[in-house]
Amino acid sequence: MMRWIGRVVAMLAALFSVAACDSSGRPYEDLRLAQLRAGVSTDQDVIKLFGTPATVRLLEGGGKGLVYPLGPEGAHTLLIRIGADGRYAEREDLLSRANFTRVGAGMGADEVIALLGPPGRKQPLALKQQVAWEWRFLDGHETRMFVVMFDTAGRVVGTAIEDDPRRQGGG
To answer: Torsion over CA of 154, 78, 98 and 56, rounded to 10 degrees?
Structure first.
């Protein structure tokens, strides 16, 4: 009897893991977000679900933002807002075209990280004496790359949106 129950539990666990992405294509992380309740869940509840944030930033009007890049070079970076009362308020995907337009020439690396979270990849370009920071993001149903170019002083000199090379190569 106990073996049979164990097999049923294992089958249910397998079904649940297959259903980790729902029909709308929402990633597994949405399942964790569904457990958070605005005004009820605490910052500790968020940390239990997502782990230690990559960065924590102070928000205007009080409270803090917990930043979670999802996956290595994932297409989403969540900013989970915690109110001054220590309770979950809302969330935002930092990797959006609206945020990309806020990155401008002369900005420092810290300012860019505050807007977008840490980059998925940094690539030195020795001949140009620049460094390219890259963020993979979801643009509709396809992934693309947002690239920020920094000079040797660590200031933004340009930005671009490019096709995702992994998508190009079939990977």
So the answer is: -50
Locate 1 and state its tokens.
């009897």
Tell me the per-residue pLDDT of 12-24, one tens digit each, with 9 for 90 and over.
Answer: 343 333 333 333 3
Domain annotation covers residue 12: no
CATH (domain of 44): 3.30.1450.10
Q: What is the mean pLDDT of the chain?
A: 84
- Average confidence (pLDDT) over 147-156: 97
Does any domain span residue 73?
yes
Q: Which residues pair with 17 in a beta bridge?
A: none
pLDDT the model gives residue 71: 73
Nearest to 71 by CA among 28, 31, 13: 28
Full residue range of the structural domain in which residue 80 is found: 27-93
Beta-bridge partner residues of 159:
148
- Is residue 22 included in any domain, yes or no? no
Q: Specify whether the CB–CB gap between 79 and 59 falls below 8 A.
A: no
What is the radius of gyration, based on Cα positions, of the chain? Answer: 19
Among the candidates 93, 118, 141, a domain finishes at: 93
Long-range contacts of 12-17 (CB under 8 A, 24+ apart): none
Report the domain count for the chain: 2
